[in-house]
């Protein structure tokens, strides 16, 4: 079980004016004077009436300062069978950050506060769960906490809430509600890149189940992410094509359990087991990511064959046809990423072709295409693929998929940026012209409000127009500008750009012509001189 050490949060609350009474299990006789000062002898900063830190608030509360209790304006509470708690009103008003700050303050004031939250009617169990859920699903929570408590880290405040929470749980087996709350903590810490804190919460969950993983999909996904490598955003940088990762390197993110995934796959494939009914797309993707991170591609290929009947080298293993469900875009992204990590993006593209062919109703969303082109660009090596065929092939796959569904290729900035990287490096202006034709005519004025999108549009047109001007094209360039320019202003600037480079082309052509004429004239003069000398001899 985890140590019950308290978290030190220096200067958590600055100028925090509390409106709730302190809750204590005993009189605060054990508060230590600050800087050797006796309690009751205010410092210079306290005389000014300002409280600039958590320590200051503690000192003021220790001097028995009076606090007012806000009446409950709702005259109701969450659970009608339970008396209203001290924090029922702000919980009902969804003032979750305010309640969090009060809990943090009082837990620092009283070491035993966490143990009496329920017995002293500070919060009911349902209200505590409501607080956790309301906070952790809130958008931009860390920024809100930093705004309320300047100079502190929002993740530390949430971790302190976690420590308060587990004190209310004790050593008992978690209820489904408590398990859900703790998984919220894990998700929050993963999303804020606090993996050690996420591991700490996961340890507590496992300890509550005698170090066994509960039959819960969310907990299982978190285990795969934290113990088996299913967090691709934390993977080390990908190598160039033809190179493999050194799995023994000292990476901060490692797979600690290499036996769990095969065992889990065995449970999923058991038609009589409970896991076969619980699996979802997120769990499937986490399994794929784990196998890809650990480099277990043979196991991954077998898993793909078993789950979706897709194989590169061998016939499909016997499987009940009705059990084969169309994979989601999330799953296909995980397959692409896992193969790409191991330097096998070409087989991954072949698998995508097989998926598209086998599942016509397959829905490939924007994140899928973004991930595909990101992988193609990050793994592209000009020495191995000087023409950029990997990116070109991916573009053709995307065009074909949209064509079969009667839709147009969406002008997504991330895809356009990665595609342009290869096109410019290979000077493939014809490929850039195809992108312009497919995408840019759909853009509207509001799309061009983004400076990034405006810049990427200009780069595509300039790559094409510069090369076409250098090739002597005229009508083709003007037709492209007329048909594909997103706005009249851009069309005007593109014509000016094209005319500038066309003039350079004309001047360059004239210089070459004049140089050729000069060379021809000099040659004729030499020939004539040789003939005269021959006659003299």
Automatic annotation (TrEMBL):
- Transit peptide as a keyword of this entry, yes or no, is yes
Coiled coil: which residue ranges? none
Q: Does the keyword DNA-binding apply?
A: no
InterPro entries given in the database record: ATPase_expression_mit
Annotated Gene Ontology cellular components are: mitochondrion
Keywords, A to Z?
Mitochondrion, Transit peptide, Translation regulation
GO terms under biological process = regulation of translation
What's a Pfam family this protein contains?
Answer: ATP13
Taxonomically, which superkingdom? Eukaryota
Q: Where is this region: Disordered?
A: 509-529
Location in the cell reads: Mitochondrion
Function per UniProt: Required for translation of the mitochondrial OLI1 transcript coding for the mitochondrial ATP synthase subunit 9.
Annotated family: Belongs to the AEP2 family.
SUBUNIT field: Binds to the 5'UTR of the OLI1 mRNA.
Record protein name field: ATPase expression protein 2, mitochondrial
């Amino acid at each position: 079980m985890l140590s019950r050490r308290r978290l030190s949060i220096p200067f958590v609350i600055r100028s925090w004016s509390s409106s709730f009474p302190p809750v204590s299990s005993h009189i605060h006789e054990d508060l230590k004077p600050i800087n050797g000062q006796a309690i009751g002898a205010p410092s210079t900063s306290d005389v000014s009436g300002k409280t600039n830190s958590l320590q200051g608030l503690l000192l003021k509360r220790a001097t028995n300062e009076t606090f007012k209790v806000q009446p409950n304006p709702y005259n109701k509470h969450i659970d009608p069978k339970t008396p209203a708690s001290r924090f029922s009103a702000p919980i009902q008003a969804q003032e979750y950050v305010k309640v969090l700050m009060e809990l943090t303050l009082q837990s620092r004031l009283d070491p035993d506060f966490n143990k009496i939250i329920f017995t002293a009617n500070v919060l009911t169990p349902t209200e505590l769960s409501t607080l956790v859920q309301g906070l952790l699903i809130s958008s931009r929570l860390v920024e809100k906490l930093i705004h309320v408590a300047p100079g502190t880290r929002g993740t530390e405040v949430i971790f302190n809430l976690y420590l308060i929470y587990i004190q209310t749980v004790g050593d008992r087996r978690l209820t489904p509600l408590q398990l859900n709350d703790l998984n919220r903590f894990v998700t929050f810490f993963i999303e804020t890149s606090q993996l050690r804190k996420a591991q700490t919460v996961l340890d507590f969950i496992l300890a509550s189940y005698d170090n066994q993983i509960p039959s819960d999909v969310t907990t299982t996904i978190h285990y795969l992410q934290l113990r088996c490598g299913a967090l691709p955003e934390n993977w080390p940088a990908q190598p160039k094509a033809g190179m493999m990762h050194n799995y023994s390197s000292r990476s901060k993110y490692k797979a600690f359990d290499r036996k769990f995934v095969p065992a889990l796959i065995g449970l999923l494939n058991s038609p009589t087991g409970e896991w076969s009914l619980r699996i979802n797309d997120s769990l499937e993707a986490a399994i794929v990511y784990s196998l890809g991170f650990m480099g277990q591609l043979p196991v991954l290929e077998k898993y793909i064959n078993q789950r979706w009947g897709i194989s590169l080298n061998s016939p499909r293993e016997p499987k009940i046809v009705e059990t084969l469900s169309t994979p989601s875009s999330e799953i296909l992204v995980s397959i692409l990423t896992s193969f790409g990590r191991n330097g096998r993006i070409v087989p991954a593209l072949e698998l995508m072709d097989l998926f598209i062919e086998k599942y016509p109703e397959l829905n490939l969303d924007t994140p899928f295409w973004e991930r595909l082109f990101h992988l193609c660009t990050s793994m592209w090596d000009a020495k191995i693929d000087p023409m950029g065929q990997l990116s070109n092939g991916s573009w053709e796959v995307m065009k074909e998929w949209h064509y079969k569904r009667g839709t147009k290729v969406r002008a997504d900035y991330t895809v356009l940026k990665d595609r342009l990287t290869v096109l410019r490096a290979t000077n493939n202006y014809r490929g850039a012209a195809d992108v312009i034709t497919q995408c840019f005519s759909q853009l509207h004025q509001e799309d061009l409000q983004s400076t990034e999108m405006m810049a990427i549009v200009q780069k595509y047109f300039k790559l094409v127009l510069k090369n076409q001007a250098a090739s002597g094209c005229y009508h083709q360039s003007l037709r492209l500008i007329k048909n594909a320019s997103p706005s009249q202003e851009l069309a005007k600037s593109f014509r000016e750009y094209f005319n500038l480079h066309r003039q350079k082309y004309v001047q360059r052509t004239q210089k070459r012509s004049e140089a050729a004429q000069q060379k021809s004239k000099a040659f004729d003069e030499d020939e004539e001189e040789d003939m005269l000398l021959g006659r003299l001899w």
